[in-house]
Design brief:
Length: 234
């Protein structure tokens, strides 16, 4: 009887030892090899690096997109937070470029070329350009649809109404020689003319992008809307 009791006690001790050893193994294994993925959402890249001290995870930036999160904050991650993963697991994060919603500026009396460039920067495309005879210089914006101060999203399209010119109206060819290219473009538009082809010529004595030739003679009377070709220094 005493032997049986001794065997039972020994058996129970072995079981208890195995149980405790298993628990210790699991804790050590979990702490050293298995981890819960942190919640990186709302953090900046610098904060993510600080949270990942010791390089427990291999973090890669999967992309940058517009979102409801502020600019430069993480708005998406894969795997999601609180998933059990092994040490060194790849975690993809996406960085916010800010809100995709914006207020449409007032583009009235601005040149169509400048407006087009500004819209492209904000991710807005032009669906249609309509012309209306106006005392404003050629290609000057009269109105937009949606109207100014409307809420639009990046990727949306808008329509633009711009000033046209009376048929056969004559204007004087401005002096563009020596101007920088962007200044020449503005001067062309301001004088109710349109921009034609731009070609480049190598010069040893001028900085790049300086107008050195035009397709029309300075001071000559030409029809409004005429396309002006430019040769600029390279």
């Amino acid at each position: 009887m005493k032997k049986i009791s001794l065997y039972l006690l020994s058996f129970c001790a072995i079981i208890a030892s195995c149980f405790f050893a298993y628990n210790i193994f699991i804790r050590i294994y979990f702490n050293q090899f298995l981890y819960k993925t942190p919640d990186f959402k709302g953090l900046t890249l610098q904060e993510v690096k600080q949270l990942n001290k010791g390089n427990v995870f291999n973090i890669t930036i999967a992309g940058e997109e517009f979102s409801t999160f502020p600019t430069n904050e993480i708005f998406l991650q894969e795997p999601e937070p609180n998933k059990i993963v092994k040490r060194g697991r790849n975690i993809k994060i996406w960085v916010s470029k800010g809100s995709d919603e914006l207020i449409l500026p007032d583009f009235s009396e601005k040149n169509l070329i400048d407006v087009t460039a500004a819209l492209q920067t904000e991710g807005i495309t032009i669906d249609k350009v309509s012309y209306l005879i106006s005392p404003l210089p050629y290609n000057t914006v009269i109105a937009t649809s949606p109207a100014k101060n409307s809420k639009v999203r990046r990727g949306d399209s808008i329509s633009i109404l711009v000033g046209d010119i009376q048929e056969n109206k004559e204007v004087k060819m401005p002096d563009l020689i020596g101007l920088e290219l962007e200044d020449a473009k503005s001067e062309i538009s301001r004088n109710s003319l349109s921009l034609g082809e731009i070609s480049y010529k190598v010069t040893d004595y001028l900085d790049p992008n300086i107008v050195i030739e035009t397709s029309q003679t300075t001071g000559k009377k030409i029809t409004a809307g005429t396309a002006i070709d430019l040769v600029v220094s390279q």
